[in-house]
Amino acid sequence: MCPNCDYKNEEDSRFCERCGARLETAKESVLPIEVTEIEEEETEEKFEEEQGVETPQIMEEIARQPVTEEEKRRMKLLSLISVLICLLLIWLFVKISDNQQKRLEQLEYQKILKTEAREKERHEKELLAQQIEQEERAKQEDERKKQERLEKARREQAELEKKEQERIENEKAEKAREAQEEKKRAERERDKIASTPIRIFDLGLKEPCQGGICSVLGSPQQFEGKFVDRYGYSHTFKILVVEQSKRMVWVRWYYPIYTMKVDDKEISRNMEGCGYWLERCVIRIDPLMCVFEPIGIRYVRTNSVKLYRTDYGLPSQ
Q1: Which residues pair with 261 in a beta bridge?
Q2: How far apart are CA 45 and CA 49, in angstroms?
Q3: Which residue, among 82, 97, 121, has the nearest Cα to 14 in the 3D structure?
Q4: Could you tell me which residues come within 8 angstroms of residue 200 by beta carbon, excluding any fewer than 6 positions away?
Q5: H helices, E strands: number in the chain
Q6: Distance between CA atoms of residues 154 and 220, nearest Å
Q7: How does pLDDT run across 129-187, given as a tens digit for each residue?
Q8: What is the C-alpha to C-alpha distance for residues 59 and 63, in angstroms, rounded to an integer?
Q9: How big is the chain by its Cα radius of gyration, in Å?
Q10: Among 14, 107, 216, 249, fewest CB within 10 Å belongs to which?
Q11: pLDDT at residue 95 is higher than 70
Q12: Which residues contact 112 (CB under 8 A, 6 or more apart)?
């Protein structure tokens, strides 16, 4: 029985047929025998002395004696024993050779198993290395795809931010343009209101004078009224136009005196240096402004007084 794998081997086996382990056998007891070397001549001489007969003679006498049946049986038995011993030795030799062959085969088989084990281990290492390499490549590919996704997301985010910034800038520009348009529209509306006189008073004309210059018809002339500004406050105004004349060497010089009063404020302008009603006069007392337009100004053929409101600012023209 193999102590390693518990395989039952043959009785005379020295090694296990399955795993090749060495089998333990009972050791035969051998008694020690002392052997002394004796010279052949001394032994023959001693034998001859003891028997008193020479050895060749004895042998011849023994050969001349007849062989008995008992001796023949003994010889046959000895021969048979010798043959059996030879057969046993041959069997032992064959068995030992067979065991040796089996041992060699077992060793070869173990060598093959070890080779296959090493090959299998090498193959497993290669497979493991390939698997690790594939996992590393897959990891790198996943990392690359992740970086690509992140880069794509960043580009998309940047594009969205750019579009959002452009949209905000467009909205701001649109709002600024609308505000500018609204401002221009409000300015036009304001300018339209500020440029439109709320009252126009005609001073009339006299007969043409020398050089086509005419004077005001009737003097003095006075205009009164009330005005409510954009904030709801009421104001009273009074406009007075008085014509004066001054005698020169050969002609009489006519010139006006303008007076404007709003609530408790009053302003007068003497146009003596202008002569013949040729100079425009502007008097401003907020929230009103009075513009005196004589003839000849902007091809106006009548003397007139225009009253503008200043609570919307001054007109552009």
Answers
A1: 238, 266
A2: 6
A3: 97
A4: 304, 305, 306, 307
A5: 3, 8
A6: 85
A7: 999 999 999 999 999 999 999 999 999 999 999 999 888 988 888 888 888 888 888 88
A8: 6
A9: 77
A10: 249
A11: yes
A12: none
Q: Does 220 sit behind a cis peptide bond, omega within 30 degrees of 0 on the bond before it? A: yes
Do 213 and 278 contact (CB within 8 A), yes or no? yes
- State CA 95 to chain mean position distance: 79
What amino acid occupies position 260?
M
Q: Count Cα atoms within 13 angstroms, Cβ side, for 221.
A: 17
The Cα–Cα gap between 131 and 124 comes to 10
Three-state DSSP class for 30? coil
Contacts of 63 by beta carbon, 8 Å cutoff, 6+ apart? none
Cis check: omega of the bond before 287, within 30 degrees of 0: yes
Per DSSP, the residues of 80-104 read HHHHHHHHHHHHHHHHHHHHHHHHH
Residue 311: pLDDT band by 50, 70, 90 thresholds? confident
How do beta strands 281-285 and 265-270 pair?
Answer: unpaired
Structure tokens at 35: 């052997």
